[in-house]
Amino acid sequence: MINTRTTSGLQKQKQCFFCTNGINEIDYKDTKSLQRFLSSYAKILPRKKTGTCAKHQRKLAQSVKRARHMALIPYTTR
């Protein structure tokens, strides 16, 4: 695992949630799990914050967009 240097010392790189749990497909109907990767303003969080790999970040974004289009999750909170 790659260590990254911060002001407080060494910090481990975050593991992809989907890779560690063996999840290949991200279901757009599972809004509870999608909420974990959204900010308080319903924006998709970046890879640096969530720790997802590039492959799953793309699938996550597609699932969030589908859920928004089907009105399962809001576009914004205000």
UniProtKB/TrEMBL annotation:
Q: Which PANTHER family match?
A: 30S RIBOSOMAL PROTEIN S18, SMALL RIBOSOMAL SUBUNIT PROTEIN BS18M
Please report the organism this UniProt entry assigns to the protein: Candidatus Kerfeldbacteria bacterium CG_4_10_14_0_8_um_filter_42_10
Any single GO molecular-function term of the entry would be: structural constituent of ribosome
Q: What's the superkingdom here?
A: Bacteria
Assigned keywords, A-Z: Ribonucleoprotein, Ribosomal protein, RNA-binding, rRNA-binding
According to its UniProt entry, the protein's GO biological process terms are: translation
Record has Membrane as a keyword: no
Q: How is this protein organized at the quaternary level?
A: Part of the 30S ribosomal subunit. Forms a tight heterodimer with protein bS6.
Q: Which family does it belong to?
A: Belongs to the bacterial ribosomal protein bS18 family.
Record-linked NCBIfam families: S18
Summarizing the function annotation, the protein's role is: Binds as a heterodimer with protein bS6 to the central domain of the 16S rRNA, where it helps stabilize the platform of the 30S subunit.
Q: Which GO terms describe its cellular component?
A: cytosolic small ribosomal subunit
**Name of the protein described by the UniProt record:** Small ribosomal subunit protein bS18
Record's SUPFAM superfamilies?
A: Ribosomal protein S18
